[in-house]
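Annex B. Sample input.
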Amino acid sequence: MVPRKHPLCGRPVVNLQDLRNERLLLLKEGHCLRDDVLTACTRAKAELRSVFETNQIESIFEVRSGFGLSVVPEMASSNAAGCTLVRLHKKSYRRIGYIRARGHLVSRPMREFTSWLRSIAKGQ
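Annex B, continued. Sample output.
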């Protein structure tokens, strides 16, 4: 995710190495998204420099102000008003699972959530 007038805006895809000299807005230590971004950077041999860290994901969407850029999951794209989303060259995925005890009461929201998880798992 980059500010609208950023040089990377016109590109259909970027590699993590293309972001090396950019200012990165990142979640603080302990957030799984931060770990995923840093792992992807390590695997791509791209060291990015963090200039802003926050506990709230909404704060990293302040790239719209031109302060820097961020790496966000596609599912968060609805929060990117005022920003441009540029795809990374290589898609990354992570596996999410859930577990519950047999006999445990399953609420309607939980049934809907697990149904949604199953539907996206079938789509991959």
